[in-house]
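Hello forum,

I keep getting stuck at the same step: I have a sequence, I want structure tokens, and every attempt I make locally crashes halfway through. Rather than fight my setup again tonight, could one of you with a working pipeline run this one for me? It's a single chain of 146 residues.
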Amino acid sequence: MKTSRILALSAIALVGATALTGCGTVEAMLYKRTTMDFDDATALATQWTGTPATWVPADSGGIRAMQSNMSGAEDASIAVLTKTALDPALCTEVDRVSAPSYTFDDLPDPYRADRVLSCGEWTVMKTPDGWFGWTPGKEKEQVKAG
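Reply #2:
Ran it on my machine without issues. Output:
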């Protein structure tokens, strides 16, 4: 009887702690990823701790990012809002052979894209309102731009 009461109180404490720490903590614990928002490309460039996303146009806004919080993992995805084309000195069109570890519900399905842009370590596809990129891509996609 005493054990079941302790278990019940522990469960209540866990639920309470989870509610107090917020959804981000639950996401980080359960899904082993972190989601971040950035107002613009400058904020992304200065605050992002993952693989540098030099492909992101300077006028981008409404930037959303997801990255693995597993030690040593480089999996990440970034979605940006912009009407600006990607710099051809940084990105080259290639056949898509990879897919992101993380995506956002309101973006097109990356599996439907036959062609994507290789932007260094990032693979990037066009979206209706901007661009969506992921890393790591496959080596076959990582061709030099130009």
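Confidence is low (pLDDT under 50) at residues 7-24. If your local run keeps crashing, start a new thread with the error log.
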